[in-house]
Specification:
Elements lengths: L2 H14 L1 H7 L7 H33 L7 H6 L1
Helix pairs in contact: 1-3, 2-3
Length: about 80
Amino acid sequence: MGIGHIMKLGSKFLLRGVIYKSGKKAAIKGGKVGIGIFSVLYAGYMAYTLYSLRKESIEEQKQLDVDRGWDRETVKDN
């Protein structure tokens, strides 16, 4: 996963308001530019982490034959 993809995911979180909380820690150290850059990178990292955890959870559920409605294919079938 490249930095471009992480930035793209980060910008999605930016629109949802996650940036305020993630950039709050950087506010002490940097100016507005530093907050923005750190926030986008951190939000991208958070999005990637959540995406990978969700993907692992879906794979585990498929292996255990458990349907909790997270997989779009199984939701459509039911």
